[in-house]
Amino acid sequence: MTDSLDELIQKHLDGRTSTEEAESLSARIVADEQVRRRYLQAAQVHGALADESLAVDMELEPAAAATAPEQRKVVWLFAWPRQIAAGLVAGLIVGLLGAGAVWAINSPKAEAQVFDIAHGDFDSMAEGPTPTQFPVRFGEWAGNPAEVVKEANGNKLLRFVRTANVKDNPDGFASNCSVFQLVDLSALRQQWKADQSRSQFSLKLSARFRRDPAPSDADLHKPKAVLRIFLFNAEPGSIGEAWPQVVRQAEALGKKAIKLEPGDDAATISTSCILDSDATVALIAVAASSGFNSETSIPLGGYFVDDVQLTVIKQPKLPVQVVSR
Amino acid sequence: MPQTDNNDEHERFTRLLLESEPVILRSILVVVPNRADAREILQETAVALWRLFASYDPKRPFVNWAMGFSRIETRRFLARQKRRAQLTEKAMEALERDMEGDTSFAQAIEAHLSTCMRKLTDKQRGLIQGYYHENRDVEWLAEHGGRTVEAVYKAIQRTRHDLQECIERQLKKELT
């Protein structure tokens, strides 16, 4: 990048131009169509990188990214900035004054209820490896190489053994160890269908991750623990068949990651997504990522997860109510 | 307005806002590149849109209606905040006009950014991940990457520039 115009544009995108430089750039933008074109291209790349739905795409296994672009389905991501809409639902925006109405604010409490998932604490599972394939049925943990281990105090938890490519795609990377479970939402659908005119539902997935020191730590550049939830309107078996491209068809999704140093205290992280009324299946995924795109499997050493929980949060749908004058 | 009607309106508004929000945010970022500022403007825009949603004509595309509001909120925000050097009003208007007139590069980003990201080095992808997706500041990235702040800025700028060039090449291929 030797062109001084490009350098000036890039500098401005990072908020580092002085007032004089911004004025000079502005003058060039006004006067020259080519400058506008260069600026718009750079700024649009900057804007796209700041788009959080892209962040999720980038973390998918490369097979998804390499395929021809599909019409991207709008996803309801419950992380900032899409929480704006959820914020409206939750009554975070207060004090609005309409021209023909008075707005009053309700503040009823949200209700949280644990939604049972199978073997969320791993205690009822047999010790040993979990199936190394994409799950096809509800209620089983399966995915990349992982194993249920028992601690000295009798507690069982899941250890991420090594990174792999869950679809054995020869052109794909083996960047992370993801273990999945399909969750049937049919029972929940009945409840929310009855309540949907009054309430907004969201699903919160949480899990506790821990990282113990291990001999392979030096091979891991920037490993992360990752939690993901996807909601689909699909048959459970079809999700694995179309993985990972199928994530573009998700009705909603949420993702959270954390970096743990070996020996750090265990950390509980959570992610949420709005429960779309069309969703029939939740796919939850716990993972340890190597932090870079590796073509070969990498031992993950001391990464563990325990206490995977799904919570349904029910909130009043319209805390902002119109009161007739 | 009966409660049920208002519920329906709210549902419709939320859906329209969620669908349009990435486009609105990206357009704000063109004239206000700071991401925290752009998100603040987006939030103000959402409030303004909800307040006047009753006047929205559903025959018009929601996103076009919303963009008008985002421009007003952008100007209001910039008039209040003088923290950073800004583009002049004339420059912003010229950019907005051109952006509206030609959407081919924006469409090319949508189609090719994933491919171009794959062509980056692991180091470059790591920087983008940290700077944009984990919202790390440059000082943090410098400290944890063993580089100077200036070197990190240069690397981020170089990476964005590489992506821009890659997308432009893809776009040219499509056009020839």
**What is the structural class of chain A?**
alpha+beta
For this structure, what is the CATH homologous superfamily of the largest domain in chain B? RNA polymerase sigma factor, region 2, helix turn helix motif
Which shape of chain B, going by the Cα principal axes? Answer: globular
Count the helices of chain A. How many?
Answer: 8
Oligomeric state as shown: heterodimer
Order of helices and strands of chain A: HHHHHEHEEEEEEEHEEHEEEEE
Low-confidence runs of at least 5 consecutive residues of chain A = 61-108, 318-325
The largest interface is: A-B, 77 and 73 residues
Mean pLDDT value of chain B: 86
Task: Characterise this structure.
The complex is a heterodimer of chains A (325) and B (176). In chain A, a hairpin with a 5-residue loop joins strand 6 and strand 7. Helices cover 24% and strands 32% of the residues of chain A. The C terminus of chain A is likely disordered. Chain A has 325 residues and is α+β, with helices and mostly antiparallel strands. Chain A has 2 domains: 47 residues, no CATH class; 206 residues, Jelly Rolls, CATH 2.60.120.260. Chain B folds into 2 domains: 99 residues, RNA polymerase sigma factor, region 2, helix turn helix motif (Rna Polymerase Sigma Factor, Chain: A, Orthogonal Bundle), CATH 1.10.1740; 72 residues, Winged helix-like DNA-binding domain superfamily/Winged helix DNA-binding domain (Arc Repressor Mutant, subunit A), CATH 1.10.10. Chain B contains 8 helices and no strands. The radius of gyration of chain B is 19 Å and the shape is globular. Chains A and B meet through helix 1, helix 2, helix 3, helix 4 and helix 5 of A and helix 1, helix 2, helix 4, helix 5 and helix 6 of B.
